[in-house]
């Protein structure tokens, strides 16, 4: 039943994203350009996201390439969710590595320009897109690894936290954390829960109360990231790690299709995407119930 519901939601979302593409002025599907590369590789690129798929390994690399700082604008989030959805629907894709093409920056988090001086309708659309990005990443049935090759404050950190594993460049100049409090804003509770699931209650409490940004070594110490490697090894280590993860028997080991029924998080029955367009309480609208998470905590 849960699988059925997840699939209904998947196709409902699929339809919604498709409509976003058709109706929005923000680009979307029509800008994704598929092309074939040698050795069973394929690539598609939009203006902000590059997806390279290795069909021989089932590993895709999703590279954020939106200068200057990969900020999460509505355009960016829409393209991101569409890219991830396409991979989710591709039965050949089993793992996704998320990384950045920009020097020194993984992602600066939510685009500040989206949050000031916009209409309530725009704010509603933007906030739904933020939620959708998180739902797609955290609820993915694929293995997801963040290859964090630069700083990653706030929403950028959330993206990394939503992955299964985090590998960061061991550059002490790079920082990561949910620093919203320092900006005078409150991290929504589903940001908080994602952090708690990774670092535990006490570290999360301090991080959020003080709006801490951790250097790469401190991020490793607190468990915010899982591994530090030299900057030029981040992507190759992510690929090696992914290969190890993909060697773990999936649900296909008991005869079922791994990509149909192996969702790590049963989100669908418990999460309600509400219409935020007329709500000033949009920040607290995602009804995320942490104990529905089956093997993340
Ligand atoms: C509808 C919903 C409405 C409201 C929601 C409200 C609240 C939601 C509650 C909580 C969730 C919030 C989550 C967030 O993610 S908030 C965003 C937090 N992000 C930051 O604070 C990052 C700020 N940026 C930095 O720390 C640095 O820029 C960074 C370390 C990323 C890079 O430093 P560097 O020195 O390399 O570059 P800069 O010169 O600082 O920046 C270059 C360029 O980029 C612009 N920039 C930076 N960050 C952002 C951003 N988040 N959004 C948009 N633009 C950004 C910066 O202004 C510079 O532009 P320019 O001057 O034109 O060159």
TrEMBL record:
GO terms for cellular component: mitochondrial matrix. InterPro entries: ClpP/crotonase-like_dom_sf (IPR029045), Enoyl-CoA_hyd/isom_CS (IPR018376), Enoyl-CoA_hydra/iso (IPR001753). It is found in: Mitochondrion matrix. It catalyses: (3Z)-hexenoyl-CoA = (2E)-hexenoyl-CoA; (3Z)-decenoyl-CoA = (2E)-decenoyl-CoA; (2E)-tetradecenoyl-CoA = (3Z)-tetradecenoyl-CoA; a (3E)-enoyl-CoA = a 4-saturated (2E)-enoyl-CoA. The keyword Acetylation applies. Pathway: Lipid metabolism; fatty acid beta-oxidation. GO terms for molecular function: delta(3)-delta(2)-enoyl-CoA isomerase activity. Its EC number is 5.3.3.8. It holds the Pfam family ECH_1. GO terms for biological process: fatty acid beta-oxidation. Belongs to the enoyl-CoA hydratase/isomerase family. Homotrimer. This is Enoyl-CoA delta isomerase 1, mitochondrial. It comes from Acipenser oxyrinchus oxyrinchus.
